[in-house]
């Protein structure tokens, strides 16, 4: 389904933004590009003298590759990481002069695409490296690549032994390796011993690559301190408001707001149930507002209300109201009994934002903020604020 995308000026009031929103839209997802830029600048300041890149894979964590890349480019970001070549194409359209790395790597048939887009594969396998070498030699291509070394995550990357064997050849200028990188498995846990083990392994192996820039830290890794930052850091989730330091207060600004429209307000008598499975029972005469968002929109079923279980909450006129019953595909019921005045059909309700953080919603969803943001569906009208 195609998304409707609207841009509004920085500083516009809520009522002014509402005039931009399509009256027929059942939900609006607002992305604050100025907040993304502010988050990037905060991460950049913590990483000096390392370069601060930006990870914009998964459609910039659901926020939109093109508008995010444009805003960050204007702010001074010079390097982006994506997962796929399709994402690289979109990033290149928005950031003509940026360095773009593709995390999912190189396949022999993709060589011409890498050349056309002027982007760099992240090589994490010896067979992949051989295919990359062949393409570069046959086509006289000198676009560059990154070398991913596995320091303990056991997901992608060549082994430490393979990296050590390659080092003399790379030192001679072979392979066109422009960056050596690894990935932290437990960076959000500041006291996890895995962090120190990976740091020691990475520090030792990059000693074999003295003239190649090195990168280890993701968002949380930046907060582990200067020893983890090397030449380039690669923040992702923190740019979009996810807390990179779960053991402390979130240092990042919130970025995404989600609102859904009330399609019906109804009264439920004491003892009656709401929703599929009849899992939620009214303990008093209850006023219910039903909004047009459900799990098809990325508002997870697990956040719904049931007897004896604390549900997620929505915000109406500045007051929190708990969900009532299971979330269904397209609809969510909210207990609005305690509001001083009943809400109206057609009114917007805040599901994310206005104090409901992405990490709080992730807790109710039983997942992490990354999945919350990347799951928000296409039926929301996208509104972009700032970024100019």
Task: Report on this structure.
- With 388 residues, the chain is an alpha/beta fold.
- The chain folds into two domains: 33-240, Alpha-Beta Barrel (TIM Barrel); 256-356, Lyase, Ornithine Decarboxylase, Chain A, domain 1 (Beta Barrel), CATH 2.40.37.10.
- Helices cover 29% and strands 22% of the residues.
- The chain has helices at 14-20, 33-47, 57-61, 65-75, 85-94, 111-117, 126-139, 160-171, 193-206, 219-222, 358-365, 369-375; strands at 5-8, 27-32, 51-52, 54-55, 79-82, 99-102, 120-123, 145-148, 177-181, 214-215, 232-233, 256-268, 273-274, 280-281, 286-291, 313-316, 319-322, 332-335, 348-352, 381-385.
- The strands form five sheets. Strands 1, 2, 12, 15, 18, 19 and 20 form a seven-stranded mixed beta sheet that branches. A seven-stranded parallel beta sheet has the order 4-5-6-7-8-9-10. A two-stranded parallel sheet has the order 3-11.
- Helix 9 (193-206) links the parallel strand 9 (177-181) and strand 10.
- The longest helix has 15 residues, at 33-47.
- The radius of gyration is 24 Å and the shape is elongated.
